[in-house]
Amino acid sequence: MRIVADLTKCEGLGMCEAMAPDFFEVDEEGTVEVLDDAPGEEHRGDLTAAVDACPVLALSLQG
Ligand code: SF4
């Protein structure tokens, strides 16, 4: 599984960081940084919640 972040869409709203702080961090410029873009399957539930929480649909999971 891979986390894909579309930085052209991200508005730095921080919902993903709130839902899964081990995997997402919003930097000073208001853009999300993916901390681990190839997480283990055991994180799929939290990551799906984080992806679904993004109001501008900037995040997706592949695989
Ligand atoms: S929730 Fe979406 S818009 Fe907000 S920081 Fe995360 S990726 Fe960016």
- N- to C-terminal distance: 4 Å
Shape: globular
State the strand order across the main sheet. Answer: 1-4
Instruction: Return the CATH class.
Output: Alpha Beta
**What can be said about the biggest beta sheet?**
2 strands, antiparallel
**Number of continuous helical runs:** 2
* Count of domain modules: 1
Give, in order, the helices and strands: EHEEHE
What ligands does this structure carry? iron/sulfur cluster
How would you describe what is shown here?
There is one protein chain. The protein is an alpha+beta fold and 63 residues long. It has a single domain (2-62), classed as Alpha-Beta Plaits. It has helices at residues 15-19, 44-53; strands at 2-5, 24-26, 32-34, 59-62. The relative contact order is 0.36. Residues 5, 10-16, 24, 26, 32, 54, 56, 58-59 line the site of iron/sulfur cluster. Iron/sulfur cluster binds at residues 5, 10-16, 24, 26, 32, 54, 56, 58-59.
Q: Characteristics of this structure?
A:
single chain; two-stranded antiparallel ribbon; binds iron/sulfur cluster; Alpha-Beta Plaits; two-stranded antiparallel sheet; 63 residues; alpha+beta
